[in-house]
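Holo model, pyridoxal-5'-phosphate. Inputs:
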Amino acid sequence: MADLIDLRSDTVTRPTAAMRQAMAGAEVGDDVYGEDRTVNALEAEVAAMFGHEAALFCPSGSMANQIALQLLVSPGAELLCDADAHVVTYEMGAAAAYGGVTSRTWPPVGAELDADVVAAMVRPDGYWAVPTRAIAVEQTHNRGGGGVIPLDTLRELRRIADAGQLALHCDGARIWHAHVADGVPLASYGALFDTLSVCLSKGLGAPVGSLVVGSADRIGRGRVIRKRMGGGMRQAGILAAAGRYALAHHIDRLADDHAKAARLAEAIAPFGVLATTVRTNIVPLDLTKAPLDAPTLAAAARAEGVLISVLGPRTARLVTHLDVTDTQIDQAATTLTHILRR
Ligand SMILES: Cc1ncc(COP(=O)(O)O)c(C=O)c1O
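Output:
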């Protein structure tokens, strides 16, 4: 796909030469024995960034989310989240399949979350109804077009969670983007959540890896769940080194990806297909009123060297990242506007 302009996802990035060097030189050990110093350093670093006691390195964001959900919601009890949340859309029913977790969702609103709607859904403990145990939000919201949930809304959710003795989880696969877009310190986000999952392999450009962040007690229990799920890795320091490199070098530069997404959005806006205001690195397209549907647009774009994601019959998505240059963004904008004009 090297000669194509790949805007399907920020997961398509490849490690840079400097990142590969960091990986090659990593000190490693057996992480199931707790002896990989690079993994241990990454876990300590990420925990500190979010002001929590501990963190756990996992092979994927899905595993990190699912470990957190199993820690927060007992089998048969309930999780509340957006109907479009990654945890209930793309994680293959894992909360139910592995954790026995029941999920109840609010209508998909992305980052435009109304805390009162969530508060009204909470079911108290009792023998007659499934008790709510946790609320999960996604920051930034992937299917919500990369929207950023405002800090005040998150504070409201924390109050609701405290009032109902519930836990609050953040799927923070792209929390770095929210931090850069809104200037909210990572520790301020961290202070609001019982657990967070954060990804190194999306916008940050590492090849593999996510972490669950939380209290030492929860992360200790999370380590057992990770092993049970087959996520105990051995000389994982090679991967953790890529993550440490990404944290040191690839957070501030996310502003470039946001600017690229804004440029694409500006070019496409006159065609009336932008689903929402672009805040971060995702440009969501709503083709309901367009003359062509999402698969047709994607096929036409692919024929001209631009890859985009089809999320539904009339929904598509472009994502900017480390591996697309400014010139390629301009080329993609020209290609897409030509197709939309036809
Ligand atoms: C918001 C969000 N959460 C979690 C994940 C899961 O990450 P992974 O693909 O590493 O399992 C993704 C993947 O794109 C995501 O967009």
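The chain has a mean pLDDT of 97. Residues 11, 60-62, 65, 86, 138, 142, 171, 173, 199, 201, 210 surround pyridoxal-5'-phosphate (CB under 6 Å).
Archived with the compound record.
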